[in-house]
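Long-time lurker. I teach an intro course on protein structure, and each term I like to show students one example going from raw sequence to a predicted 3D structure in C-alpha cell notation. This year I'd like something fresh instead of my usual example. Would anyone be willing to generate the C-alpha cells for the chain below so I can use it in lecture? Attribution to the forum is fine with me.
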Amino acid sequence: MADTTNGNKKHSDWLIMVYLAGDNNLSATSIAFLQNLEAVKHDKKVRVLAAFDSATPIPKGARYVEINRDADEPGAFGQKIDWPLHNDLVTPGHIVVSPDFCAPLGSARGPASEPTAAESLARFFDFARTHYEAKRYMLILFGHGTLVAGNTFLTDTSPPSFLKLDVFANILRDHFRQKIDILGFDNCVMNGIETATQLWGLVDYTIGSQGLMLALGWPFRKIIETVSENRDLDTKRLVEKILRVCARNLLDFTLMERSSEQAVCDLTNFGPNDKFVSAVHELSQALQAGLAFQQNGELSFPIVRDVVRQARLEAQAYFSETFVDLYDFCELLVLRCNDVLGNLNSLVAKLFVDSIPKTTSEATSSSKRFLLDWPDLQKVKKIADAAWQVLDIFRREKIVPRAYYVCPQLQYSHGVSIYFPWTLPEGPITFTPAPGSGPKPTNFEFTAPFDVYKGYLFAKAEYGDWAAFLEAFFRATLRNVRQVELDYREDANVFFKGFPINDGEREVPAVDLQKTDSDTGEEDECNCTPIKNYPRRFYLSPADCMRRLPVFGLPGSPAPSVTNVTGPTGKVSYLGWNIRGLVAEILGLPANKTGEPPPVK
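-- Reply from a regular --
Happy to contribute to a lecture. Here you go:
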C-alpha cells in the first residue's frame, strides 16, 4: 500500500469502487466476483478498489482488495506466491485477523465490535477518500435490495442491519464527499424515482433494475474492461456502453426463460425544481383532487377512482405488485381517460343522432366541449393532461437515456419505477433502538414501511407529494364494512337497487377489544402483496368513519353505557367488521327493532 501519512494518494483517471455486501448468503458469490475482477487486464489509469464484507462472524470488518495492485507495486508477494487475490489485499485500518491460541502477534487497530451495514460502507468510503484520488468515480454495489420501503438493502447478518434510502444518501454525502459519476446497482428494485430524487446532486448516472436481479447477472470483468477501453469518453456515452455489456450478458439467460430489464437514469433531472419531478408532482395533485370525498364520506368522483385503479391494474409491476413502471402507468392513465371520453362521445352521438347534422365534422368535438362542463370529466381531463406531461418530459429530457428488456414478462418497462402498493403496507416492520437506550438497548421502536416512505424526499409535498396521493388512493379504494344482506330489485333509475333483508338483523356492538392472543396474526394465504383493498386491520373507509360506533378505552373517548354499547343496523364497529348473523345470535345481541332501513345505494 502506498504511504499516505504525508498526504500522498494514488491517482488515476477512474477509480472504480466495488462494495460486495456478502455478510449474508452472498459470500460465495462475492468471492466469485473478486476472482472475475482479478482477470481484468491491468490499466494503471483505471484503479479498482473492492471491499468484501464476509459472513464469517469473527473478523471485525470487510477485507479490502486493490485489483492488480501487485502489478503496480511488484516485489511484495507477486514474485514469491502465485495467488493474485491474496497478493492484492490491502490493510484496511480495522481488524480482520481471526483469534487463535498462539501468542499475540500484535495489537489490531480499530474497534473490537463488528460494524453494522451502515458503518461498514462508511468505513470503505473513508478509506477510499483517504488513499485514492481520481478524475472520475464509479461505484458498484452488490448485495440484496430493496432500498425503498424495505429492510434488506446491503443487509448484514452479523450484526443484523441494513441501510435505508436516506441513510445511504447521507453516507455518500458525509463520507465520500465526491460526486459519483456512475453508480451501478447490482441489487434488486433500485431504479426508482424515490432513489433518483434522494441521490440527486450526489450521483450523475445510475445503472440498475426496476425488478429482481440475478445474483450472477453482471459481467464484472467486462464492465471494468469497458471503462478501461473507453475511459476518455464522456460519462453519458460510457455508461451506455456499460449497459450494452450488461444487456449482452443477460440475454443468455433467456435459455432459462428469465425476463430481465435494466436502464441508465440521468439523475441530473431529478432535482426538486426540475421539470420531471415537477410534472409528477402535478400528476399527484390532479389525482388527489380527483379522489376527494364529500362530507358524507362518499367519493365525489367515482369515475376517477375507476380510471386510476384500472391503470394501476394494467401497469407493469415489480416486486410482488409493490412498484410500477412510472411511464407505463402514465400512458395507461391517458388511455383509460380517453376511454371515458370516447364512451361518452358515443353515447351522446346515439342519444342525439337526429339533432346532430350529418355533414358537420365538428359533431365529436362539440360533444367533447359539452361533456367537459361535467365536473367529473373535468377531473379526468386534468389527470390526462398531467399524465401526458410526465410522458412528454420523460421523452424530451431523456430521463432514461438508454434502456432494454429481455423476454415478455417485463416488456412494458421504461427504466423508472414508482412506489405504488395496492393497499396500506403492513410489512416489513423496522426496529431501531429507542433514544437513550445505550450500546446494549433493551427497548426498541418500530416503524411501519409507509411511515419510512413518508420520510423520503420524493414523498414530501415539496417534491412529488406521492405519499399524500397513496393515502388518497388507499382511502378511495377501501371497501365499506359488510353491514346487512341485500335483496336486489329492478329500479327505474338503476338496473337493480339493494334493499336490506329484514330477518331480525342484530344490533351492532361497540366492542372494546383490549386483548390479544398467541396467534401470529398472519393470514392463511400466500405471503404476497394484497390487491383487493378491504379492511384487514382496524381501519375503516371514509364512509364507514361517518357510521362508526364509539371506541372505548382511548383518551377522551366516552365510557361504555347501556345506550352506547350497541347501535342499529347501518352502524359499524371500529374493528373493520361487524359481529352479525350466527355469531351475533351466539353472543345474544339484540335484534334490530327499528324496522326496515332505507335502501342502500
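Some talking points for your students: The radius of gyration is 30 Å. Residues 275-476 form one domain.
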